[in-house]
Design a protein that fits this description.
alpha/beta, Rossmann fold, ten-stranded mixed beta sheet, 10 strands, about 15% strand
Length: about 375
Amino acid sequence: MEHRKAKGATGDAQAIKLVRRRQERDRLLSRWRIQPSQASSPGASTSGPRRAEDPAQVGHDLPGHGSVPPNPTSHEIAFLHWDDIARSHWPRRSLAMVGEIAAVYRWYLLQGGLLRIGRLCPGVALCGAYPGLFTALALMIALLGGAGLGGLTYGAIPAAGLAWGVAVLVALGTTWLLLLAAWALADRLGVVWLWRSIRFTHRLGQARDGDLRLRVGELARRILELEAEAPAETVLLVGHSSGSFVMAMVAAELRRQDPGAALTGRLSLLSLGQNLANLAVYPGAQAFHADLQELAQEPRLPWLDVTSADDLLCFAGVDPYRSCGLPAPTGTPYPELKMVALAQPQTLLGRLRLAFRQFDLHFLYLRQAPASHGFDPLSQLLKP
């Protein structure tokens, strides 16, 4: 995501509305401008989020938080599209996914991936093993359930010849139904999403990232075109989860395409719940290592990295340079690592419940959070 702030944007806190620029067709960017919401009128409720009443405006109202300018064009948010590339790498059929688990977990379990990630962040290593463990358990239960019900069927039919045939059909049918139920449960629990994400990152780490690299170059050129048309006072690149390494790629590419620093002098970075090390640990991710080295060069882009120890799907407090064996930038620690509390379980039962909420917890960085969490994305985006 890219956030652009127009020059001279100031103002008081108020309710806002994100209004999509629907008249513009751009396969690379989806853009929203920020304008004061009607909900900010006297007596109106600002408890959001809620849908805009005008069906022509795709967006939602957000309660005022931070400094929001009165000029509706003073802030703009753009979503940088690379999601289609990720989806093109995602297997959609359950059998295809199961068939590829062996290849990925051969690296993860037998070629040192689990140990390398475990040294950096044990929670992420456990989450990385979770889809494989879930699949193994589901297969075992399905096979045992099918064999058990088939055996009971065989014992209930007196004719031996008929019993064998019916028992085999019952065993196969039961196994298949249990596997379908396991797939539905995996999808509901987020296991399917997690596996697809792991598999996509694995492909990138094997240097099969050509299509993403092409898109990164296109995104960088598009951002520079926007800046040439209407220069912004500040530009903030934001990456969440796997988007954090795409953010780093785009930032490095902007520096390469903009050697005069016309844009990069106003560019800063924000990574949320990052898993940079998931890609950086691969020896084949040389292009990504080069991106990190580019960002380490002076003058450095301001980079704030926000993670939480409660979030087991991110590398909480892990320096991305240390994660891939690159020398740490000299001087001030880079990026600036900030830890926040997304959840505050007080009891053992609370911590156990937290373990089953990891999927939802991982996306709390993108939602307006109570002040006790120590971080609010809207305040970060709209700060003066």
